[in-house]
Amino acid sequence: MQIKDIHNVVGSEFQQVNELIHAQLASRVPLVEKIAEYIINSGGKRIRPLLVLLTARAFNECDERAVKLATVIEFLHTATLLHDDVVDTSDMRRGNPTANAKWGNAPSVLVGDFLYSRSFEMLVELACLPVMQILSKATSVIAEGEVLQLTNVKNPDTTEQQYLDVIYGKTAMLFEASTWGMASLLGRSEAEREALRIYGRELGLAFQLIDDVLDYEGDAAAMGKNVGDDLAEGKPTLPLIHAMANGNDEQRKLVRAAIRKGGLENMSDVLAIVHELGSIEYTREKAVACANRAQAQLELLADSPAKQALAALAMLAVQRNT
């Protein structure tokens, strides 16, 4: 099953999400609409709203509530992208100039704030306290993950656990909130809610682990961002952490220096080291383990195209090259 097949399982509802997204971007301030429309329309797989819809479809309740929650999730995600690009001083995302590169940092941050606010307006309309609790907590965890990542920049002593804490906050938390939130909105059993929560978390971890692999061996044109961005920013991702834990003194010294300095001056040397030490393979294996744990959670669900799509999505997360 390919990504287009997965989308087709909830094709009509996905179209409704796109329509609601554009309807909810309306603002009396033209620049707000302009920037929000730009980032929303700039591409992306929209995996998080897809997870919401597939979860609802798996329980045969993919209705207007699912469409609204999926839109809320996409707005929250888009807000984090606007803020992240400012923090990371990124100038390219999904093959296009970032909003901050086109309009500046201040408008990007403020439009991100607008999307956060609009998402919570819509969340109130759903009138489901458990979902409000999940998403309000998620926004806090996401912010903490970003701050934790910021404190680890150019820190070669970052541990694997600290790295996992970062990617849980910055990526996996919103995946988790997507599936867990939808199961909670439908009032499913505690066992079902917990299974979908773990599925989302493990899928999100797998997704980010592969993102960090692709920073060292991806195709810039296909990914729509620069290969080596993480190293250039001095981010100690898992391939580097593994290399420092398993390399000889000379290799550790070079990787540590590359993290502390940032930039791409030592990119070719770092690439040689992470490949020689099996650090890329190690990170991929971690991602596959997460994907397998995600799939295992689906045993509670009745067999259906939606369940098959959720299982396929876990495997696609670790097989992708973009």
UniProtKB/TrEMBL annotation:
It is an enzyme of class 2 (transferase). It catalyses: 5 isopentenyl diphosphate + (2E,6E)-farnesyl diphosphate = all-trans-octaprenyl diphosphate + 5 diphosphate. Its cofactor is Mg(2+). The keyword Magnesium applies. Pfam families: polyprenyl_synt. Its EC number is 2.5.1.90. Belongs to the FPP/GGPP synthase family. Supplies octaprenyl diphosphate, the precursor for the side chain of the isoprenoid quinones ubiquinone and menaquinone. This is Octaprenyl diphosphate synthase.
